[in-house]
């Protein structure tokens, strides 16, 4: 490890690594291995004090600062930055009486799920429990219970955040109301969140899982889903995905190497009610395979069955104000079974319900007015890799006639500052920019969803 004489760097308890140091490549690696991060330094932070020291060093020496826990959102090489790696800051504490969880910056949802489950509680995690809690939440956070309980950001009660001056600040609605409003939805544009406390919900089990249909049922399933999904109560959430499954021996034989349609469903009511709600979609076509049952909440990954192994990917998302038949036809023309698309997954997700309602403590989360979300992802491997970026962007372009007025920050994919800024309505965007410029006038923080300077 390189020896540094700088006082701030010398005070950091975790490793401080230059590109030539052993362990640098492992420290900067993220879930999306298509992006090879190349910061000038990486700081393996162990505490809020370490983060604050790294920010002070960067500001004093003219570097920008980036932060990474799991690297699921890594879309940029971060050249020349000081990268704060928070993976060592993984503490999680649950208060069952208060129904809250307190986490450090590097915690993942699986830790919170497992800590909350013995108390009959659950967090508002996303579709994959290996995602980092803080980055997901500060971008809004839409998961399997969002239609019932809203965005994850709506349940945050307080933060500790290191701002551009290198000061760690406790932030809640009473102490720093503007900053508290902005960080919930503004991601890492205003500082580095090192601790966060948020509410848990009294959910111990759910009825749900997935139904897999064959390729020749794709049009029937998607057209049925677009009319069925909006009829569901808030206690139910659903998405549907067109998947090109790899010929992996670890996959169940009915899915291996096939193009399939994956209907996802999660219901917080009784199994009997869940069966009744799901029946119209089961009747659309014979299923290749079904994994639907009453399950403990700790098994929530069974709904989306997202990959858990790091891989090289390129993605793109779009929030939709409506999903008429023409939109489904446009999507199928781009990614249906006869389209020859190189994409691994194209998804439609139902929004609405509590997602659309303003929380008791308003925040800067974008996309509340969207009715659906579209999302495309391709694995950058093999001969088709070069075609994937254009194919992913093509899905968003095909669905753009039905775009909502706002977007979903966590689902954008690679985006410049102007594209990011268009994800909010003008009033929210103007307020967010004013607060960001007040707390970070020099644009110190480098993020995958940058705000205009």
Automatic annotation (TrEMBL):
Pfam hit, one: FAD_binding_4
Cofactor(s) essential for the protein: FAD
Q: Which Gene3D superfamilies match?
A: 3.30.465.10, 3.40.462.20, Uridine Diphospho-n-acetylenolpyruvylglucosamine Reductase, domain 2
Q: Looking at the keywords, is Metal-binding present?
A: no
The record's family statement is: Belongs to the oxygen-dependent FAD-linked oxidoreductase family.
Q: Provide the GO MF annotations for this entry.
A: FAD binding; oxidoreductase activity
**What sections of the protein cross the membrane?**
none
What range(s) does the FAD-binding PCMH-type domain occupy?
A: 35-203
Q: What is this protein called?
A: FAD-linked oxidase
Note the superkingdom of the native organism: Bacteria
Please name the InterPro entries in this protein's record: FAD-bd_PCMH (IPR016166), FAD-bd_PCMH-like_sf (IPR036318), FAD-bd_PCMH_sub1 (IPR016167), FAD-bd_PCMH_sub2 (IPR016169), FAD-linked_Oxidoreductase (IPR050416), Oxid_FAD_bind_N (IPR006094), Oxy_OxRdtase_FAD_BS (IPR006093)
